[in-house]
Amino acid sequence: MMLKVLATDLDGTLIPLDGNPDNPPDLKRLEQFLAQHHLELLFVTGRHFQSVQDAIGQHGLPQPDWMICDVGTTLMHREDGQPLKVVQAYHDQLAGRIESLPIAELSDRLKGVAGLRKQELEKQGPFKLSYYTDAARIEAIAEEIQLRLEAWSAPYSIISSVDPFNNDGLVDLLPSGVSKAFALSWWADHTQITHDAILFAGDSGNDLAALTAGYRTIVVSNAADALIRQVSESHRIADWDARLFVATKQATSGVLEGLRHFVR
């Protein structure tokens, strides 16, 4: 099966790393490689849409044909050179999942949780509710929210993390089961593109589900050793040795290296 699509994470993967002189020129080579081999480009990122647009401008990223953003809660498509538009069928799929408790009602119910501050409007979405909180209290706050979700039988899951750049506590509420990997799988079914025709590139734990879903896979060399071991073991157990490429180069350059490995 010939590859048709490069699906890639952005931060730490496609986006050039600060201080890596090879990444910017390799980004240009990567864009040329995609055009030469008629490969579509799909971004798979936790960033919100405007943040992706900012990254495209800042780093000179190639324009994607498809975009999964907002931690898997938004899917967009570009047709015939037009601006990206939301894929309505995916929007409708997620709307059905939270019909019993829409985002606006969930937001009202969570006003009683002390220490939550809503993130900026552009970081919210019809299927994503995002907050800041004190990093020192994030575990306790996440536990309190989880207990409320269970009491309400709310169709949501919670993701909590700490921003490594400013130490903000981050809390996202998403429809249950929805993630970057879920959106990628739904997109593959929707477009009728088989797993063998998709090459996925990533670098971190939030890429793990997609890295071990059966696609051809690139793990860039700046990924943590523990993640590389975990992905390698999953592929070995599934007898997918030929589907995994662990790059010797970092970020952008590693993605290009992987492309050249799989597309000859």
UniProtKB/TrEMBL annotation:
Listed GO MF terms: phosphatase activity
E.C. numbers: 3.1.3.79
Pfam name, any one: S6PP
Entry keyword Repeat: no
Disulfide bond in keyword set: no
Keywords carried by this UniProt record: Hydrolase
Top EC group: hydrolase
Domain Sucrose phosphatase-like: 4-262
Source organism superkingdom: Bacteria
Protein name: Mannosylfructose-phosphate phosphatase
Organism this protein belongs to: Novipirellula artificiosorum
Protein's gene: mfppA
